[in-house]
Amino acid sequence: MNGSLLEVSAVSVTFDGFKAINRLSFSIGPTELRAIIGPNGAGKTTFMDIVTGKTRPDEGQVLWGEELTRNLVGMDEARIARAGIGRKFQRPTVFEDQTVFANLLMAHKNNRSPLAVLFYKPKRQDIAAVETLAARIGLAEQIRRKAGELSHGQKQWLEIGMLLAQDPKLLLVDEPAAGMTLGERERTADLLKEAAKTRAVVVVEHDMEFVRRLGCKVTVFHEGSMLAEGSLDHVTRNQDVIDVYLGR
Ligand code: ADP
Questions:
Q1: So what's the ipTM on this one?
Q2: Are residues 174 and 77 in the same domain?
Q3: Which of 8, 37, 45 most suits a substitution to test ligand 1, by most atoms within 8 Å of the C-beta?
Q4: Last residue within a domain, chosen from 108, 132, 167
Q5: Which of 127, 138, 198, 219 has its CA 20 to 30 A from that of 25?
Q6: Is 160 in the same domain as 97?
Q7: Same domain (yes/no): 124, 186
Q8: Ligand 1 binding pocket includes 46 (Cβ within 6 Å)
Q9: Are 14 and 73 in a shared domain?
Q10: Residues whose CB falls within 8 Å of the CB of residue 27, separated by 6 or more in sequence, listed in order
Q11: Relative to the CA of 49, which ligand 1 atom is closest?
């Protein structure tokens, strides 16, 4: 065992002759929180697409598991999700006309159809699990409210809760703090920090104050490669990083 849960090694992706990812390597431990930053076009989204199987790299490996014995390259998205990789896109995608309870129950029962849950009578242990989850994401009081009535921040937490209900080993989160109030950003950072106590969490984020609040190691992407890695203070003092952010 070498301590990593995911090890992306020298992957490249070319779109119409343009190298969007260029021999990128990245690894994360099983209970690690990591922020990925980098200017637009740096390859952050494509990186997540590779890990989740949406985009197949032209070269390189994506090794996975406690012993890094599985190569995810070529595996389809559904199988990768079942292997324990969850992804949250920037916009919340909850079932707005269903309650918080029903949304969480659906995820807890690993059921993607809100209709199926309407016909399902939850057992006591399912109810308890969903109530615990609602409290964990700060929505205990809203549990009977329709998801569509929640604030933007609360919808984001609900979706994070729906992903946590599936208990992924790795959670990829794209710009969770975008559009949130300061108070919501603080709670989101706490939620992700707590989630990373029992799984790996990768957060792609532009908001540096939010990254500071996460207080974790930061990886800087640039032109499809890793430019720098370390604490936020370390990477923001790096001259290459300063030049990239100032567009030099
Ligand atoms: P980021 O998420 O860091 O903004 P992306 O991963 O979205 O960066 O994009 C990396 C580069 O790859 C960009 O130059 C983008 O225009 C290009 N790119 C991404 N997806 C495609 C695609 N499907 N076809 C062509 N070019 C793409």
A1: 0.96
A2: yes
A3: 45
A4: 167
A5: 198
A6: yes
A7: no
A8: yes
A9: yes
A10: 4, 6, 7, 8
A11: 6
* Tens digit of each residue's pLDDT (9 = 90 or more) over 219-233: 999 999 999 999 999
Kindly report the CA angle at 11 between 237 and 5, in degrees rounded to 5?
80
Residue 240 token pair: 């290459």
List Cα–Cα distances, 162 to 107, 125, 155, 189, 237, in angstroms.
5, 17, 10, 17, 37
Q: At what angle do helices 152-165 and 124-136 cross, to 10 degrees?
A: 130
The two beta strands, 170-174 and 200-204, are parallel
Question: From start to end of 16-145, where are the E strands?
Answer: 18-28, 33-37, 59-64, 70-71, 85-88
Q: Of 137, 167, 197, which one is at a domain's C-terminal end? A: 167
The residue whose C-alpha atom lies closest to atom 26 belonging to ligand 1 is 15
Same domain for 73 and 1: yes
Whole-number pLDDT of residue 48: 97
**Cα separations in angstroms, 166 against 27, 108, 137, 160:** 23, 6, 14, 10
How many domains, the chain? Answer: 2
State if residue 43 touches ligand 1 by the CB under 6 angstroms criterion: yes
Q: Positive or negative CA dihedral for 244, 177, 95, 138?
A: positive
pLDDT tens per residue, range 171-210: 999 999 999 999 999 999 999 999 999 999 999 999 999 9
Domain containing 187 equals 1-84+169-248
> What span, in angstroms and rounded, lies between the C-alpha atoms of 60 and 15?
16
> Which structure tokens are listed for 105?
């129950």
For ligand 1, is residue 13 a contact (CB within 6 Å)?
Answer: no
How far is ligand 1, taken at its centre, from the CA of residue 20, in Å? Answer: 6
